[in-house]
């Protein structure tokens, strides 16, 4: 208990120190860097995962390939991928983005695919029966009904990316992981614990935001209307 209280005091002292809120080494600047890596990675992953997930879920073609690629991407160690791309391409944000995109694509891809594929076939037939084209069925029927799973995939990917974007610090880049890496190299555990706490809080904020977004978008009325093309 005393150790826990001591650690909490360390975190409190670190967070309330004025020097942590100013300059390039401060929390706001590192947080902005972290959000930039995370946001870009999630954007690219969403473009890839949503596009292929919707396409394969709608057409039913390539389901095995989607599952295989998603499982392969999950098996790739993020840190190892960062080191490999840094070795091949040099020090830049590219290795970090590639690794984080590879991490984020599988949950988005699989959840989008499963959500669209799981739409009731009778609902699809009814939509086609009233003259909807394949594109209209996808946009007006399948996507709204698959939205809960799609948002779940995006939420899982966002939390994973935010928590893992600390790897950007290992090849010498910024982000909140800078606190952890620098703290370990200096044996400054106050810095390590403080940086880790900020990462955890950020992940919790992302979780809350996506939960609120789901409740706002995926209302009972929307699900009912989606079932009635």
Automatic annotation (TrEMBL):
Location of this chain's protein in the cell: Cell membrane; Membrane
TM region(s), chain numbering: 35-56, 76-105, 149-171, 191-213
Topology within the bilayer: Multi-pass membrane protein
Residue ranges annotated for the ABC transmembrane type-1 domain, each copy included: 31-210
Gene3D superfamilies: MetI-like
Keywords: Membrane, Transmembrane, Transmembrane helix, Transport
Cellular component, GO annotation: plasma membrane
Pfam families assigned: BPD_transp_1
Any one GO BP annotation for this protein: transmembrane transport
Protein family per UniProt: Belongs to the binding-protein-dependent transport system permease family.
Protein name: ABC transporter permease
The organism of origin for this protein: Streptomyces himalayensis subsp. aureolus
